[in-house]
């Protein structure tokens, strides 16, 4: 892990520089505004939010290819593209969280867009930065989270991400997704210490107009031992995770930062969680026909599962690094998850 600036060069963003930290939302909008109007709306939003001026909208014929393109590193906090009636929003996670993506879609003329997602409120963190770093490094060295073997047909030098999605009728809670994903992981490769990171929000309905990263992170370990009810209970009581990297300033911050950077570089393949799960909740968006959310591919495995409910169905996605997964392998894993919901 190392320190890196925000896309505008202002306050520091402390995160793994090896990934682009772009989160993606695809909205299928039958009456999508013309290209020029979308550009003008995003430029106005960027001015209001103090973001870097975005590049012109990217036009493509294939939504999947467009997502792969917009998932790469970009200088602007938010960039957009369209493929027919599909609008793809790509945001740097230091500036925008999952619910913030919904606000961007709304600002681009597809509103109103609201979510049922509930925040974690004033839930306390589990430990301070120094203790978090020490605990996570000890875990990585002695009892690392379960991972999944690389697919044999994968090009280990491939860049970018692989993304797949499926639609399932009905509504599902985060505990349903965690339970199904854990069972799918264990069925594929019996494992111990399955660790699931859960993306949540601190405040789903902020009063101020600023779009920012209000996300929070929960983490469950040894989830293979829990049934559905146990996972539900664990989600209710899990403390917030302190990011295992130091922020700017403070006594000893530089020394702590160097120690964290060295330790995490040496143990990078054993850090993180088996899977990240992030659910945007049930979304009401009368002008939108479909939604798909792709969280970041951070952590040791780089696997992330995204979900969003809309119109009586839930779109579930998996995203992974192309150096570790191909479309077929990721699709098989997603089918296993879907079958267990």
> Number of folding domains?
2
Give the distance, in angstroms, between the N- and C-terminal Cα atoms. Answer: 35 Å
Give the CATH H-level superfamily of the largest domain: Nonribosomal peptide synthetase, condensation domain
Structural class: alpha+beta
Main sheet: strands, sense, barrel:
7 strands, mixed
Percent helix range: 25-40%
By CATH, the architecture of the largest domain is named: 2-Layer Sandwich
Give the class-level CATH name of the largest domain: Alpha Beta
Q: Estimate the global geometry from the Cα principal axes.
A: globular
Q: What percentage of the residues does DSSP assign to strands (E)?
A: 15-25%
Output mean pLDDT.
84
**Helix-strand topology string:** EEEHEHEEHEHEHEEHHEEEEH
Total number of beta strands = 14
Count of alpha/pi helices = 8
CATH topology of the largest domain: Chloramphenicol Acetyltransferase
In the predicted model, the low-confidence regions spanning at least 5 consecutive residues are: 1-6, 8-12, 244-250
If you compute it from the alpha carbons, what radius of gyration comes out, rounded to the nearest whole angstrom?
A: 19 Å
Please tell me about this protein's structure.
- This is Condensation domain-containing protein.
- Helices cover 30% and strands 25% of the residues.
- The protein folds into two domains: 22-114; 129-339, Nonribosomal peptide synthetase, condensation domain (Chloramphenicol Acetyltransferase), CATH 3.30.559.30.
- Strands 7, 8, 9, 10, 11, 13 and 14 form a seven-stranded mixed β-sheet that branches.
- The chain is globular.
- The longest helix is centred in the N-terminal third of the chain and has 15 residues, at 35-49.
- It has helices spanning 35-49, 63-70, 98-110, 129-142, 174-188, 228-237, 253-266, 327-339; strands at 2-5, 12-15, 22-28, 58-59, 78-83, 86-92, 114-115, 161-169, 196-201, 215-220, 275-284, 290-294, 304-310, 313-321.
- The chain is built from eight helices and 14 strands.
- β1 and β2 form a beta hairpin.
- It has 341 residues and is α+β, with helices and mostly antiparallel strands.
């Amino acid at each position: 892990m190392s320190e890196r600036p925000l896309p505008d060069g202002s306050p520091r963003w402390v995160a793994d520089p090896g990934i682009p930290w772009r989160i993606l939302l695809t909205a299928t909008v039958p009456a999508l505004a013309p290209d020029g109007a979308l550009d003008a709306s995003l430029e106005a939003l960027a001015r209001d939010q103090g973001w870097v001026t975005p590049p012109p909208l990217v036009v493509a014929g294939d939504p999947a290819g467009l997502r792969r393109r917009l998932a790469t590193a970009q200088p602007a906090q938010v960039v957009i593209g369209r493929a027919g009636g599909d609008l793809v929003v790509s945001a740097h996670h230091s500036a925008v969280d999952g619910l913030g993506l919904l606000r961007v879609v709304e600002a681009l003329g597809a509103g109103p867009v609201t979510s049922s997602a509930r925040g974690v409120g004033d839930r306390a963190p589990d430990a301070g930065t120094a203790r978090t770093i020490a605990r996570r490094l000890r875990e990585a060295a002695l009892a690392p989270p379960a991972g999944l073997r690389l697919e044999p047909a994968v090009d280990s030098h491939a860049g970018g991400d692989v993304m797949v999605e499926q639609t399932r009728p009905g509504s599902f809670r985060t505990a349903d997704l965690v339970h199904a994903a854990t069972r799918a992981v264990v069925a594929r490769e019996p494992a111990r210490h399955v660790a699931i990171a859960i993306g949540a929000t601190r405040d789903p309905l902020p009063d101020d107009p600023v779009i920012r990263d209000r996300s929070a992170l929960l983490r469950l370990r040894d989830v293979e031992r829990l049934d559905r009810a146990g996972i539900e209970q664990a989600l209710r009581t899990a403390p917030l995770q302190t990011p295992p990297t130091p922020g700017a300033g403070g006594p000893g911050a530089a020394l702590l930062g160097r120690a964290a950077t060295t330790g995490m570089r040496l143990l990078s393949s054993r850090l993180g969680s088996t899977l990240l799960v992030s659910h945007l909740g049930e979304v009401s968006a009368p002008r939108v026909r479909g939604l798909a959310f792709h969280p970041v591919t951070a952590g040791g495995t780089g696997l992330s599962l995204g979900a969003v409910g809309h119109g009586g169905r839930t779109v579930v996605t998996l995203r992974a690094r192309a150096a570790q997964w191909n479309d077929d392998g990721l699709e098989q894993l997603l089918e296993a998850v879907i079958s267990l919901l």
